[in-house]
Amino acid sequence: PPPPPPPPPLFPAEDGIRDVAGCLVGSEMCIRDRPWGLALILLSTLVHGQDLDAEALAHKMLERLGGRDAWAGLKNTINGSQQNRAGDPTVVYAIITMDFERPRFRIETTAQDLHLIRVIDGKNSWRLRRSGRIEDVPDDLFASEMGWYSAHLYRTIHRVAARDPLLSLHKGKDGRLEISAAGQRILWFKLDAKGEPYAFGARDDDVGTLSGPWDFVKDGIRHPRWISNPDGSWRAAVKALDINVPLHDSTFARPKSE
Fold this sequence. Notes:
Elements: H1 28-32, H2 37-47, H3 52-64, H4 68-72, E1 76-85, E2 91-99, E3 104-111, E4 114-120, E5 126-128, E6 134-136, H5 139-150, H6 153-161, E7 167-171, E8 177-181, E9 184-191, E10 197-201, E11 209-211, E12 216-218, E13 221-223, E14 226-228, E15 234-243
């Protein structure tokens, strides 16, 4: 989708480009609407260490982006984006296959005279470089990519929707919604009056990425139509989106020959 945080570095990329993505719903409404229901929900929230204002922000955002149930039910996304860059090549097309159930993803990048692939899948990780060589992903790159995966924009929204017990929500400075794991912030959102994100950032990045209207819709799930770094030197526009498709191991498999 154009992805998630943070936007990719300027194109030294021999390895491919990645993109930088009040009340309760469902049966809990029945609880909320009873005289003792709200108190029960508040108590549960406090016990789990959540910030009530942040819970309200998260609910508002999820409702704006298609609903908690829709996002909680995500298993994967495959999105294609056109990425425009200040460096050469100035235009590339990236397809990102992101598995929410297993820590693996595939990024394939194409442009004129360019074809790059990077697969992160544990010990089976590999990459196709600009030279045409297929090789193992170096340990430092693997660690960096797994850090990116852990704060992935759409996967994190999915985890918030599913109420992942490993996440905590907080209301940060400027009223932004902050998501933390293991006591460390992994993602933040700035929301407009309707709850739609217009900026987001990962970890210690307080500047973040701008996002256009979240009106690219697939099966009720809303993605931003475009995202950009603040100075516009990297921009991405969503061109295609699929969700919850069967992900076969062959999608991530290393070619048998170069």
